Every structure is written in structure tokens, then in C-alpha cells.
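Appendix B, example 12.
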Amino acid sequence: MSAGTAVSWSRAHAAAQEVVELLSPACQRIEIAGSIRRHKAQVHDIEIVVIATIEGQSRGDLWDTLEKVNLLTGPGGLLDRLSDSGQLPLRAVDVHRKDGSVEQQVRRGDLYRALEYDGLPVDLFMVYDPDNWGTIFALRTGPGDWNTRLVTDCQRYLRRVSGTVVYRAGVAVPCPEEADFFRALGQPWVDPENRHPSLVDIRAAA
């Protein structure tokens, strides 16, 4: 997560909505997350979670073979075009090394991209398995101390969050929606704007 200069919620939300409009043509699903979703008065960055649209496109060979093409992150896809045009340029972020050093790198991966829009940092998180959407969307909404408490406390009842997957007694639990993620952990629903470590209440009867 980036740490840009704080701006008002209204400015950040308006900018995030514009980013959503830019990306939507190449997305199956797209939502604003982070502190904007939590309605924080001051916002440091824009966090967006997406599932890209995958289409079968002909290779143009004699057999008219179809290949899967990611319309968002694939070569020449929408993100490349928006970056090249300057509408959503890539940005460098601090990468902390094990030796304590900090290096600035441009992040252009298939799971995460660091971008910029209207002077604001944009963190874009890609979901490839719809069954993991709920987990990723919930964790990218945050806040960080709430996430930490959730994934720590759930271990008392043989539940575990590993990467983007929730496990109960060692078995992966699909979480296509955020409510499924909460149920899998045994945590009663809490609205995004109210999420605080003191409200974590993992229950044995999930």
C-alpha cells in the first residue's frame, strides 16, 4: 500500500470513480476498496480490486485457434494503453529489502500494479479466481490492524488465512463474496467504516 499526501474523501472518491470508469471496459468486476470504502475523512491512496475480462481471440492461423487474452493486463491491453497515454502512468514504490535497504521499483505485475491518477497513488489488485474475491476485497478494504487481528484470532478455531485462501481444519473454503469470508472465519459482519480491532469477535460456531 502506498502513502501519498492526504486528500479529502470527496476528492479521492471522485478520482477513484473516474479510474473505475476507465478500467471497467476490460473488467468483469471492479470495486473501490481501502480507506475510501471505509469513508475515512482523509485518504492517502486509491485502492481498487478487479477481476479482468478474459476473451477468446483467434490466432489467425489455418485452424482459427482461439487463445485466452486478458483484456486488462495482457500485452497491449487496456492498462498498457492507459499507461502509455499518460492517463494512468506507472509509478515507483518503495521496496524494503531484508537487509534493511529501500529500493524504488516500478510495480507492473499480474497481481498488483502501482499507478497514478490526477496526482494520487492508485494501487490496483487483480483477482483471478472468483472464489477468492471475498477474501481479497475484505483484506484490501482493511484497515491493517483489523486484518491482523482477524487472521490471528481465527487460528484459535483451526481457521487460517493463507495468501488469498481461507482454510477451516485444513480445507479451503470458497469466499466469492465478502460475507462468505466473514462467515468462513466466524466473524459477525461489521460495516467497512466501523472496522476496528476491538470489534473482532471470532466465534467457534462459524
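The two ends are 30 Å apart (CA to CA). The first helix runs from residue 9 to 23.
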